[in-house]
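Annex B. Sample input.
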Amino acid sequence: MTNITIGVLALQGAFYEHLRLLREAANILRPDLRGIWQFIEVRTVEELSKCDALIIPGGESTTMSLVASRSGLLEPLRDFVKVQRKPTWGTCAGLILLAESANRTKKGGQDLIGGLDVRVNRNYFGRQTESFEAPLDLHFLRTIDQNGQNGNSQSFNGIFIRAPIVERLLTVNEVEASNQTGNAEMVFAPSRAVTSEAAKKQSGQPVEVMATLSGRRDRHPELDRGAENEVGDIVAVRQGNVFGTSFHPELTRDSRIHTWWMEQIHQTLMT
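Annex B, continued. Sample output.
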């Protein structure tokens, strides 16, 4: 079986913690999926070109985008995610960078990569001192436990540190018209043409809500209160093979999400 290389963007943030959990997950995958994985830190275009999939870790999204731009990685990252449509997962800051639109940005805004047709609200839960942990019911983990066995429904401990939420799922028309807005606090990812049929299939998938957190959205009455509000604060989404979480799985000792994501990568690459 061909080896699969997963890169972790290592410009800033919790990249080492992701690598640790990836290695743990590789040891509890079902036997036929073990021994085929390679994990690398990504700081250059050459390293990115070796990757079949990518994690953009938690950290400081503005700093990451600035370093990526200065190091010549920003456009290759957009090509990786939006044009080639390779499997990508962003946690916290990574989710912000993967969004097509971000609200409440710092003065001067920031560059986004894009890939998820959502608008995120940065630092929705407040300052560093307001960080918290909460149990999450993640339906997609119900068939995976820590030993790679089936049937586990244990909650996942979500760690939220200056975390964003997905405040709106964007329609195709909203994504296409996004750059025409005059809102100074909102930034948008530039559009990119998708050429291959496989990439079009992935980018054309609807956004799935993968996890919610109840009881906190009412603290921010100024937010757009669309239909998504009915399901609570959206803290994880997937669109095709691009995945984003508001919380930090990499800061736990629980490798279940990494295990699930690696299985998704294998399934995507083998079809």
